[in-house]
Fold these 2 entries.
Entry 1:
Amino acid sequence: MKRILLALLIFILPLTVLGIESRRDFIETYEEQPESAEEAAPPILEEMETGGTDDDDLSFLDEDDEVIEVYDPFETLNRRIFWFNDKAYFYVMKPVAKGWRWLAPEPLRIGIRNFFSNLRAPIRFVNAALQGKFRDAGNELTRFGVNSTLGIGGLYDPAKVHFGIERKIEDTGQTLAHYGVGPGPYLVLPFLGPSNARDGIGLLGDFYFSLVPVLFENRYYWLAVSGDVINFLSIDKDTYEGIKKDSLDPYLFLRDAYSQYRLNLILH
Amino acid sequence: MLKRLLLTLITGFTLAVTAISLAASSPTDEVRTSVDAVLAILDNEQLNYDDKRTQIRVIVKERFDFRAMSQRTLATNWKKTTDEEKDKFVELFSQLIENSYVGKIESYTNERVDYPGEKVSGRKAVVETLIITSSADIPVDYRVYQKGQQWLVYDVIIEGVSLISNYRSSYQEIMKKEGFDGLLAKMRAKIDELASTPS
């Protein structure tokens, strides 16, 4: 177990360092965006007065656009793993998840999901704190306290339902990004799916702070993690099926969606 | 005489109020009208699957500016295409977007939609919505812009992921490898595939 993690670390670390440079440029261009949108407001009004709703004159819509160029030097390998994950999803994970969906009522499955989410609360707490988001860290601490007790070991989420304290996703990958670590090359991880060098390393940090390995040791850990994933898929409304159905190239679609999703988390 | 005057006054007043409310309707109001209409159709048990789709399509067409979406998806390539190519792309792209959006909305039947807020800046606005389901709350933001009296959707952002940005990068990648015609061919094939396998 530890050896695998170490091997992963050795493999991924150099990649991240490579990625820092490209990421820097990206952050800079991104951070300039909101300002330029503000500045551009007056011309827009002028345009309206002169009735400038020309077909080709919609450039003002693009100002707040973040164009993400994903660095993907391992596309060939990534696509292979993507293919493997796709098969694993349709032939193993999804059928099991469907069986579980049929067997267990939804409230129970949501309870199990909450339970695992609660065990991962320390990840969110630590990483919010590391990024100086002390209010969020405090919220996570409160949530953990309330949900572990009133929520019966985390099965329920009274912190949200009764006290209106929402969960906020924070993880080690986001903390690394906060301190300027770039995403590095895009990676598709076996079974886990879209990631990148930075977030892959982040998973190690998350593993360290999670209570799941504390509660479930050795082989029970993998059992618990698989159970969590299967249970999650039983609640999920066929997101991956939808993506596969809609997009011309699901690999590209997910690659970009993942990058946007992570960027959005990092910026908030 | 008095009656007629009164009637004229009332009619005039009503018209004025309608005009004002039309002009002043907020982005959220307009998005809400469309979203509510779509939800009502989805909840209508008297309609079969095809009828629902057809009716939803009409509403989506009124609210979504597919041409603006196409233009943003093609980005710099938009100017390089001929008018004919543009029309073709818009037609295919609207079918794909429609399908994708309706498919997503469909999987959330019987759910509540909240409108936590909106941000308006000049002719652009973001209407925030939150789809509340039994298992999760999904943030869906509509980017709209003002065209005449209307606010039209030019992008949908689900959990921080912009639909248009997403399409843009994959389409550009495909265009790089297979050219504009290759992209159109792929889009056509996708539409045929979707038509032949109704979910």
Entry 2:
Amino acid sequence: MTKEKAIKNKIKRHGLSVLFVHCTVAISTFVLILTGLFGQFPMAGRYMINRLPGLSWLSDFSVTLSVHYWAAAVLILAITYHIVFHGIRRDFDMLPRKGDMKGSVKLIMATFGYGKEPENDKYLPEQRLAYVFIGFSLLILVFTGAIKVLDNLPDINFSRVFMLWTSLLHNLGTILIIIGIIIHLGAFIFKENWPLLPGIFTGKIDLEYAKRRHSIWYNRGFVRKS
Amino acid sequence: MSDFSRREFLKRSAAAGVASGVALTGFGRNAVASDVAQVGTMIDLTRCDGCKGLDTPACVTACREENKDRFPDPVKDIPDNWPQKKKEDWSDKKDLTTRLTPYNWTFVQNVNVEHGGKRYDLSVPRRCMHCDNPPCANVCPLSANHKMPEGPVVIDSDICLGGAKCRSVCPWGIPARQAGVGLYMKIIPGIAGGGVMYKCDLCYSRVKSGQTPACVEACPRNAIVFGEKEKMRALAYKRAAETNGYVYGDKENGGTSTFYVSPVPFEKINAELMKQKAAQSHPKTPGFPGMPVDMENFTDTANGIAWSMAIAPIAGIAAAAGAAYKTMKGGKNND
């Protein structure tokens, strides 16, 4: 391990690009869900959420549609950046590997005190699976959302059946992404995962934690994929 | 990373760029333009007299007769739209013909307006304008509302959940909601959904089979003319030129398939209609549209933002390529 990566018992887990993508995807997705559920689906007025302080704008469809569009642009930028950046670098640590399903079960069992936790690489097997689930959901949303945006333009009118399926998939994608986010955040109910939290804000995690829980990654010596 | 060449970098950039481009913007453009000629109507207010002498104008009666089998048949005990203690139930007002309801998809407004020192009694048949780029259809989160290739904007009552967003974004507030009927009653009635939205579909099934809409056929004074949309537009302007009149519906909401011709400016008609609405016992009750002039389409602002979504992937690719090149050349761990 190089010196600069172990300053003050911390170890660098994420670079600026990852922090940027995670931050922009998280914020834009939150805004999209908010303006999608309460604005595109007219729930804010129905459930009187617009009467809560500061949320009256949620029942103004022209505002929520515009905010939805801007947030979608930010999400598209972040996703494109993510795919291209890691594609060029051939950085595929987050992609699922053979045995991840089994590994996740073992890891969850170990969390509850059954059996020993397997040795982990930079990411836990369940993190890799969650990544694909969330990524897939986001791609469904971006793709179907782009079709809906095109359909809203004055000179474009897709067929009725095509739009029915597009909307259905967009709504399904929304449900999937909400489930994905709940599972993603739900992982932090377990104390064992808490040391990973600072990583997504500062890029660094505790050195001892990395040695113990991400031993494969640690032992690789951070030559490139640290 | 020291052996990482510029050539290799460009190769990887191109591959990653294409992959993300396909994933994010790809293959959505199926048949966009239609070869089907769009239809429309021209409503001549110099001819319409509201069928004076009849209890109900002929166009209204014909519409009700034509569509009676499609009118809602709600359950007896309609649940409130939780958490609110209200619902929209018109089932005890089925005979109402003086406004738009789920049981009355067209009606005639009567105004008396002054123009050029002369007073005019005008009867204005009202119903869906069948917009060129209908916000009601665009914003429906279920795509239950759609503009058909022939022009009519049609609500699928089997899919509609009755959120009434279509009515909120319609400049005329045309669609009418009936609670206690439709898909939401089979899911979680009372908790989500509010009924089904109903409105004129320009007798779409008749149009598809080569017939004219029922209201057109029934009009005794040929005040409502049906045909190819462009011909109706041309006819409206021709008629306006002949009568020194005004056209409504060509520019409004970005363009519609309904062209009114009036001997008085529509600003005056709208002002009179707003007066009538304000004088009603429940002025906020939907179903009594005005005729606001030159209003913009609800989706105009959002469509102006759409360009940002086209630029976003380009910016993402450029920024990522730059960042990746920097980190790889410098051998930095910046993943």
